């Protein structure tokens, strides 16, 4: 960073720099059969119904070695580091929900990024209202490529039928996030470079 | 001094036409009000008040995790209209906000209307001319207004908490421009807040809590502690606040007339807080809406609360989670209840020191690596 002075005009950027080192996602899986699925419930309203529904739906098609369920202390806080480490030790892939409010969305993504950092492909479920926030959070944390599972907003006050619709959305997208997708690699690379240039001004 | 922060180019022909106030607007660096365009001299004066070393990172500000160097802190303070001697307060407030238990990431992102409430105690409030008296939460005092504004500008610019991107607040709240007062220690009949928490009276502190705006509590009738505090309990006992369903912390700003009446009866801070805690809250039946929308347990309330229809659900978990301050002018039988954001954020009280007590830049806010 530098400043520029020309005659009497100096303009100061009040934003401060962001250390925007890009961290790669965990290596993706080639198959889901036989893996241990970790479910991280953030304790928000209806997160448990969504996650249990998704777990049941996924287990119909995929024979997991185990499905482990965890609940974090507060939906608006990151999961405790000990919990993240325990989940990473006991599982091969993770599904977490629900990011349907500002702080819970941000923390879901942060949990997923922490798990990815420990080598666990992680799918964080957020709602349509929070797609943009998620994108910015992932940029700020240096993992812009970690796509979330996006389901319809809202979640906290919906019926069982509406939950079932969202469970179907989760089932499909989560598998795509855990599995390797070679077609996307080129696109990903370009986007990373653009974002890096943008953020380091 | 080596200024590290950026820069724009303007061709020499239009130099005279450049309106710096408009330029800061165009860059999206304001809170919606005009800012004071920073100059090297003004920035330098604030950096000196912070102890020099403009590149020193005081903390990183969520959710963008921008580095708050002393220079960037100074730039935002100048923009807000602060004087250099406000610097230790603004710095202490930011160190409180970036203390991990405060969960600034959540406070910035939440759809709720919470904003950090900052309350200053100790001699520095008097020295820099803060107002804890008449209209303390209102307009008109430079220190209150611009310290709060600098905190918000840093949350916006360095923290990136702008709506509708990273700040997802549904409605917002006027306290998201500025929300900083001091306790009226000179006229309070009670011990100051920071003394209650173990600080010597001649130390200065900042208290920060994620909070709603103050809700007025009117009581012109009662002339004893029980009556006045029952009125406060009425304001505390709504089921509409985050505090009711998410617990956490809340604050009470006791007006001078109310405080004097209560103190005349020999009540201490602990008596007041305990009475408020014991006599406020909601029935579980009200919180659960009689299970009309499905069986409710509410994991966000302490597990030791009994969940029978008639069980009393205290508004916060203990009397110590009611933060009591005496604020306001001599006249008027008014106080205020200030609900919090919920258990997701823990208020922080920290000393205001001349220089940072935090370790080096790498771990400035305790978040060495995200």
Broad CATH class of chain A: Alpha Beta
Provide the CATH topology of chain A: Rossmann fold
Average residue-wise pLDDT of chain B: 92
Number of domains of chain A: 1
Class from helix and strand fractions of chain A: alpha/beta
Task: Kindly provide the radius of gyration of chain A, computed on alpha-carbon positions and rounded to a whole number of angstroms.
Answer: 19 Å
Specify the number of helices of chain B: 13
Globular, elongated, flat, extended or rod-shaped: what is the shape of chain B?
Answer: globular
Strand % of chain B is: 5-15%
Number of domains of chain B: 2
Helix content of chain B: 25-40%
Topology:
The complex is a heterodimer of chains A (201) and B (370).
Chain A: E1 36-41, H1 47-61, E2 66-71, H2 81-90, E3 93-99, H3 102-117, E4 122-127, H4 131-140, E5 149-151, H5 160-178, H6 185-199
Parallel strand pairs in A: 1-2, 1-3, 3-4, 4-5
Helix pairs in contact in A: 1-5, 3-4
Chain B: H1 20-26, H2 40-49, E1 57-61, E2 66-69, H3 70-80, H4 87-97, H5 104-109, E3 115-121, H6 123-127, H7 142-157, E4 180-182, H8 193-196, E5 205-211, E6 215-218, H9 225-236, H10 242-246, E7 250-254, H11 256-264, H12 269-279, E8 282-283, H13 284-287, E9 312-313, E10 322-326, E11 334-339, E12 348-351
Parallel strand pairs in B: 3-4, 7-10
Antiparallel strand pairs in B: 1-2, 3-5, 5-12, 6-11, 7-11, 8-9
Helix pairs in contact in B: 2-3, 3-7, 4-7, 9-12
Question: What does this protein look like?
Answer:
- The complex is a heterodimer of chains A (201) and B (370).
- Chain A is of the alpha/beta class.
- Chain A contains six helices and five strands; from the N terminus they run βαβαβαβαβαα.
- Chain A has a five-stranded parallel beta sheet with strand order 2-1-3-4-5, sandwiched between helices.
- In chain A, helix 1 links the parallel strand 1 (36-41) and strand 2 (66-71).
- Mean pLDDT of chain A is 85; it is low at 184-201.
- With 370 residues, chain B is α+β, with helices and mostly antiparallel strands.
- Chain B folds into two domains: 20-212 and 345-358, no CATH class; 214-340, no CATH class.
- Helices cover 30% and strands 15% of the residues of chain B.
- Chain B has helices at 20-26, 40-49, 70-80, 87-97, 104-109, 123-127, 142-157, 193-196, 225-236, 242-246, 256-264, 269-279, 284-287; strands at 57-61, 66-69, 115-121, 180-182, 205-211, 215-218, 250-254, 282-283, 312-313, 322-326, 334-339, 348-351.
- A four-stranded mixed beta sheet of chain B has the order 4-3-5-12. Chain B has a four-stranded mixed beta sheet with strand order 6-11-7-10.
- The longest helix of chain B is centred in the middle third of the chain and has 16 residues, at 142-157.
- Chain B is globular.
- Chain B starts with 19 loop residues before the first helix and ends in a 19-residue tail after the last strand.
- The model of chain B is unreliable at 356-370 (pLDDT under 50).
